[in-house]
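Section 3.1 - Work completed
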Amino acid sequence: MPTTAPDLETTTAIAAADPAHAATAAPRIKLLANGFAIDHPDPELGERLMADALGVADRDAMDGILRQLVRASVSGNKADETNLAFMIAMAKSLRPRDSIEAMLVAQMVSVHVMAMRCAQHLARAEDLAQHDSAARALGRLARTFPAQIEALNRYRSQNEPAITVQNVSVADGGNAIVGNVTQHRNVIVSDRNRAAARKARRKRKRADAQRARSSAEAPQETRP
């Protein structure tokens, strides 16, 4: 069954039909003979939108990430605008918030594109050597991608605000648990409450020791 490439003019028209979406959507990249350019009627706004999509703070960082994505989009020995537009759209959807996330997200979309390329080579393999080579490459990339997801989630969870518990009461015989008790936030018991808990434990120990001494010193009942 034949497949057709998406109509880029139609895609652009659909995006432009929604003014709010058009105002915030990442612009496309136009590939040139000597490089690339941001395809936007307002160059300054286009740079701001692209920098926001990639999660970078300045032009040098934006140009660097874009150059890397252009090279990673290569298909048939030349950069592919459709691949590049897809990669930028996926990067924007992950909402990178700083330079670390920007680099990691760029790697994630690049690894996905390469994995799909290896899957295509695997489907077209004509002999065992080609099949094994494509299968090994696809396996490595497929294992790398979830590891990148975990790294991104772990990095983001470290930047979440901690929750400080101000009042902790421990009943007799109870145990206070101090540490990470959720997947995404750290629960911290303040030093004041820790000191109060230690003081209460010491007080209970002294009371228990006093009762034991009193019991030992009490006169024993004698039988005739």
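Second construct:
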Amino acid sequence: MSRKLLQVDGLALSIGDTCVTRHLDLRIETGSCWGILGSNGAGKTTLLHTLAGLHPADSGRIRYKEKELDAYSPKQLARERGVLFQTGLSGFPGTLFETVLAGRHPHLGSLGWERPEDLQLAKRMIELTGLQGLENRNTQTLSGGERQRMEIATLLTQQPQLALLDEPSNHLDPGQQIIMLQLLREHFTIANRALLMVLHDCNLAIRFCDHLLLLKGDGQYLAGPTQELATTGNLSWLYQHPVSLQQVDGNTCLYFQ
């Protein structure tokens, strides 16, 4: 049975003169995959950071598992939710394996030593993201796509219940985009986890997300199941440009006219 991981009530959020939301109500339940869509400057990243507890809202409430967001300590919050930033934060020198293993730090005891199972988990996530053989490479020598897969492997090693991702397909070629999004979906759309991600590619959002949050950039929004929201009317309204939807090999594809 699904249950709420994230509950947002009456959230008001603005960036300068841009009103991201005036009164956002949102329920993210376990087993769900949400995609945030909107034009450039609509506030998608700022909203994601606010839901992660990294940016203050103007007003409203955010709760994780029925508990107020600000009631969590930073370490407790890191155990509950993971964040993948649009620009990776692994700017310090180190090996790929060391960086991925850092995903376990919120779960370590007072002595801070990794257990054998932590090492095995990091190794497995490196393999799942296709990075085996690069474990000893310095992170500064990785390509953009390799670094993005490393960030995804670190998030998977962290094992949060709620994942908040900002453009997880960045720097990935089309094939790797499909592979990584499928991996993330399989990992988080299970009984006690959920996934919320900002995407620029509407077709990826329609393909992988069962729910959508459409941000207009003037305080207006639409939220609900993808099959209900992914219409030509809603997407033309969102991007202020006429669009069409077609079925290709069983997938719904969006085209800008």
